[in-house]
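Lab notebook, design round three. We kept the backbone fixed and only want residue identities now. Task for the bench partner: fill in a sequence for the structure below.
Input structure tokens:
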């Protein structure tokens, strides 16, 4: 029997490093239900959310510089007719190293229909890498989540994620 995994697994070649910054294309992200065309349409240029009740998109950027601070953000298109975002907050989360603590920022997508948005928008999500972190653990784990409301949602396109060295 030919079995295809339901989740999209990140392709590391879709992560571009420019100086100390990283651009993560949609295929460079792990997307829960991303291989199921009922829920997602994933291409090199975008990951279009058709509909899910469990939004979980994550990524890893490896071998970041110790003692530096990084900003994490997602660029999205909120399509006209996007649904399920009213009174629902999306979380952008990130942590330094496997054993680090997650930091997060909330974002609202309601009222953004038909617009290109970068989230978080009001205050950046910043993660510091301690100087003493081991080389093997100098990875940034990040993601975009809405798994708490149980509401069906859809109508967004993930264009890219950015990890930018700011310090």
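Proposed sequence:
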């Amino acid at each position: 029997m030919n079995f295809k995994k339901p989740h999209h697994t990140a392709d590391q070649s879709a992560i571009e490093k420019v100086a100390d910054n990283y651009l993560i294309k949609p295929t460079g992200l792990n997307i829960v239900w991303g291989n199921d065309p009922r829920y997602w349409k994933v291409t090199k240029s975008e990951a279009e959310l058709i509909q899910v009740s469990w939004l979980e998109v994550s990524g890893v950027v490896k071998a970041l510089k110790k003692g530096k601070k990084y900003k994490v953000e997602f660029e999205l298109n909120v399509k006209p007719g996007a649904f399920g975002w009213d009174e629902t907050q999306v979380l952008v989360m990130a942590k330094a190293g496997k054993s680090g603590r997650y930091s997060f920022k909330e974002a609202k997508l309601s009222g953004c229909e038909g617009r290109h948005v970068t989230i978080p928008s009001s205050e950046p999500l910043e993660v510091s890498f301690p100087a003493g972190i081991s080389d093997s653990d100098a990875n940034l784990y990040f993601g975009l989540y809405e798994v708490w409301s149980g509401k069906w949602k859809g109508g967004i396109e993930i264009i890219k994620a950015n990890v930018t060295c700011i310090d």
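Keep this in mind before ordering anything: The mean pLDDT is 94.
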